[in-house]
Amino acid sequence: MLEIKNLHVNVEDQEILKGLNLKVNKGEVHSIMGPNGSGKSTLAQVLAGRESYKVTEGEIIFEGKDLLELSPEDRACEGIFMAFQYPVEIPGVANTYLLREALNSVRKYRGEEPLKHIEFAKFAKEKMKIMDIGDNLLKRAVNEGFSGGEKKRNEIFQMQILEPKLSILDETDSGLDIDALKVVAGGVNALRSPERAFLVITHYQRLLDYIVPDFVHVLVDGKIVKSGGKELAYELEDRGYGWIEEEKTAANS
Amino acid sequence: MSITLSEKDNGYIEGFAGFEKTAPGSSLGWLKSIREDAITKFSELGFPTPQDEDWRFTNVAPIARGSFDILQNGQGKVSASDLKPYQFEGEQINELVFINGRYSTELSTTTKLPKGVIVLNLAEAIDSEQDILEENLAKYADFKDEAFTALNTAFMEDGGFIYIPKGTVVEEPIHLLYISTSGENPSITNPRNLIIAEDNCQANIIEHYVSLDENIYFSNVVTEMVIGENSSLGHYLIELESKKAFNISTLRVQQARSSNIRSHSILLGGSLVRNNVHPVLAGEGCDSLINGLFMSTHRQHMDNYMKVEHASPHCDSRQLYNGILDGRSRGVFHGRIIVHEDAQKTDAKQTNRNLLLSDHAQIDTKPQLEIYADDVKCTHGATIGQIDENALFYLRSRGISKETSRDIILNAFTNETLESMTVDSVKNYCANLITDWFNQRKLAQKS
Predict the structure, then answer these.
(1) What is the number of other CB atoms lying within 10 angstroms of the CB of residue B435?
(2) Quick check: A88 and B390 CB within 8 A?
(3) A101 CB within 8 Å of a chain B CB
(4) Number of Cβ pairs closer than 8 Å across A and B?
(5) pTM value?
(6) Cβ contact (<8 Å) for A72 and B393?
C-alpha cells in the first residue's frame, strides 16, 4: 500500500529525515517510536502533504501513485488521513459542517453522490457513539474551546467518518488520561480491517497495549534504525533508546 | 443655478449665503439660527487634519481640496427598475428614495405603517412636523466640535424623518435608499436623518448608500436617533458608494433608560470612507451593540470611528467590528469607550479583528478607554492577521480543496458580523454583497 524509499526531508533548511525506508501493506499496523526530534512528526506531516516540509530526495508510492505529486486534499481523497498532534481551532466553522464538507469532497473525488443532511446525520450517529461524542461537540466550532481529550477524540471521529485506507496517528495518545486513551484506541480498532493500514506514531509504549501493532520501528536521527514486532516496544520501554543508538554507532564504526 | 462649495475663495461661506435663501424651512427662525451657527462653527473648525488626534490615520485633503456642486432638486434620471438591485427580498416595503440627496415622491412607497407612525422626508417634515423637529433636530449630533457634522447641519435640506409613537411595533423595516447618479462635476449631498422612537417601541431602519455611476461625489451624512425608554431599535448602514466617492457618516444615538440599539455597518464602497458611530447610553440599564464589517480593496481607505459613551449605571455595550483588507487598501479602527463618573457597573467590551489578504494592505487599530467610574468592567482586544495557514492545511488534509477551504475560513469570518443581524432579508442581502465581493476578487486574480 505504502512504500517510502530513501526519503530525505528538510525543514527550514535543516535535514530532518535522512534516508528513511518503510513499507506498509494492507491490514497492517505499524508503530513508529523514537526520541524527541528524531523526525516522527515530520514523517507524518510529509505524508499528509504539508508544503513547508521539503522533500529533497527519495520517493513515496501510495497505491501505485506518486504521493509527492498530489496536493494535501487529493491525498485525503485517495485515502490518507492524519490525526493531528495539535488539532487546529477554526472559529466560526461548525464541526459538523467540516465533517460533511470533507466527506462529500472525498465522495465527489470517488465519483459518488454527496450525502444529504439527513443521510449524513444517520451515518455520523453510530460513529458518535463509538467515540463518545455528543451533539453539542458537533455543533461547536472546530476544536474551539475543546479540551485536550475532546480534540483527540474529534480527530479519530473524523477518521471514522472518512474511513481512510491509511491512517496516520501523530502522537494521538500524548496528554491523554487512560479513559480517553481507551476511547481513542477503541475508535482505531473499530476501523481495523484487512483493507486498511495504520501508522501509529507514539512516544509511549502505553498506547500499544490498546492498539496492538504488527511492527514496531525505531526512528533515530532521521532514519529507521531498528524494526521488530510488538515486543520491541516493551524493550524500548524498559531500556530507553540509548542502547539502540549505541548499537548504531557500533555498527557504523 | 447651482451652488458650488470649495475652500477656495471662501466658497463654503458664499455658497451658504446662496443656499440659505432657498433651503427648505428658510423662513423658520429656529432652523435658520441652527444653520447659521453651524456654518460659523464649520468656518472656525475647518476640515480636520492628521494633526487632529481623531483623524490621525485619515487625511481628508482630497475632500478639503475638492470643489462640489449642490445639485438642485436631485437631478438625474432614475427609474423604478434601477432600484431593484438594492431592494430586499420578501419584505413589505417602506422605502424612502433619495436621488442625489433629494426625495423622490414617485419612487418612494410607504405601506402598512402602524397608526401614528410618521415616515416622511425631512424637507416635508420641516413644514408639517415643526414641533418635533424643533425639539430634536441638531440637539444630539455635535456640530460645535465636529467639522463634518457642522457642514452637514449648515447645508441640510433633506433626508429621512421617522417618528414612532409610544408602544408601537413597526414590523416591516424602513428603508432609506440614497442613490447617486452622474453629474459632470463632483457634487455634494448632506443627507440628514432624524429617527425618534418614544417609549416601548420596536423598529428596524436601514440606511443604504448606492451609486448608479462611478463618479466623484461626496456624501456627508448625519443621522440622529432618539430612543425612548424600553425601546429596541435596529439600525443598518449599508455603504456601497462609487469607487471614487467620499462618504463621511455619523450616527449619533441617544438612549433612554432600558433601551436597546443594535447598530450594524457593512462598508464596501467609496474611495475615502469614515463611519462614526456614537451612542450615548444616557439612561440606566441600556444595551448597545455596534456590529460592523468593512471590506476594502484597491486603494480604498476606510476609517471606523466608534465612540461609546456610558453616562448611566448598569449599561452594557458590545463592539464587534471586523475588517477584511485587500489590494493597497487601508483601514482604521478607532474604538473609544468613555465611562462617566456616574456610570457604575458598566460592562463594555470591544473586539476588532482584521484579516489582511494582501501584503500591501494596512490597518491601524486603536482602542481608547476613558474611565471615570470605579466599578466597571471594560475589555478590548484587537487582532491583525492573514488567513491562518494551519487552518487552511487542516481543512485541506480532510479532502477539501484549497479554494473551498479558503472560502470556508473567510465565510466564517464574515459570518460573525452577519450572525447578529435580525432582519433576515437584510442579512441575506448583505451576505450576497459579501459573496459578490469575494467572487470579484477571484475573477480579478484569475485574469
Answers:
(1) 13
(2) yes
(3) yes
(4) 78
(5) 0.87
(6) yes
Please answer yes or no on whether B390 and A71 come within 8 Å at the CB atom: no
Q: What is the pLDDT of residues A144-184, one digit of tens each?
A: 999 888 999 999 999 999 999 999 999 998 888 888 899 99
Instruction: Identify the CA nearest to B126 among candidates B44, B222, B194.
Output: B194
Q: Which residues of A touch B405 (CB under 8 A)?
A: 73
| Site of grid cell 463611519 | B275
CB contact under 8 A, B412 and A87: no
Using a CB–CB cutoff of 8 Å, tell me whether A87 touches chain B: yes
| Contacts of residue B431, Cβ cutoff 8 Å, sequence gap at least 6 | B414, B418
Question: B33 exposed, middle or buried (CB, 10 Å; 0-12, 13-18, 19+)?
Answer: exposed
Instruction: Mark yes or no for CB contact B395/A98 under 8 Å.
Output: yes
User: Which residues pair with residue B195 across a beta bridge?
Assistant: B162, B225
Query: Phi and psi for B268 in degrees, rounded to 5?
Result: -130, -30
Q: B394 CA to chain A: closest CA distance, Å?
A: 7
Indicate yes or no: CB of B404 within 8 angstroms of CB of A101: yes
- With a CB cutoff of 8 Å and minimum separation 6, the contacts of A101 are B398, B400, B404, B408
Residues in chain B whose Cβ is within 8 Å of chain A: 388, 390-391, 393-402, 404-405, 408-409, 411-413, 415-416
Q: Are A48 and A75 in contact (CB under 8 A)?
A: yes
CB-nearest to A84 from B388, B394, B404 is B394
Does an H or E element contain B322, and which?
A: strand B316-325
DSSP B94-148: EEEEEETTEE-TTT-B--SPPTT-EEEEHHHHHHH-HHHHHHHTTSSS-TTT-HH
Question: Confidence band (pLDDT; 50, 70, 90) for B445?
Answer: confident
Nearest to B251 by CA among B149, B176, B338: B149
Give the model's pLDDT for residue B89.
Answer: 82
pLDDT of residue A252: 66
CB contact burial B299-332 (16+ within 10 A = b; e otherwise): ebbbbbbbbbbbbbbbbbbbbbbbbbbbbbbbbb
Task: Count the neighbouring beta carbons within 10 Å of the beta carbon of residue B408.
Answer: 21
Pairwise CB contact (< 8 Å): B408 & A101: yes
Query: pLDDT value at position A231?
Result: 87
For B176-197, write each residue's pLDDT tens digit.
Answer: 999 999 777 899 999 999 999 9
Element spanning A248, H or E: helix A242-252
Mean pLDDT to the nearest integer, B437-445: 91
The mean of the pLDDT values for chain B is 94
Percent of chain B with pLDDT over 90: 89
Task: Give the model confidence (pLDDT) of B261-310 as tens digits.
Answer: 999 999 999 999 999 999 999 999 999 999 999 999 999 999 999 999 99
For A183-227, how does the pLDDT look when each residue is reduced to its tens digit (9 = 90+)? 999 999 999 999 999 999 998 888 888 999 999 999 999 999 889
Q: What SS3 class is residue A163?
A: coil
Contacts of A48 in chain B (CB under 8 A): 393, 397
Q: What is the pLDDT of residue B9?
A: 66
Verify whether the Cβ–Cβ distance A90 to B395 is below 8 Å: yes
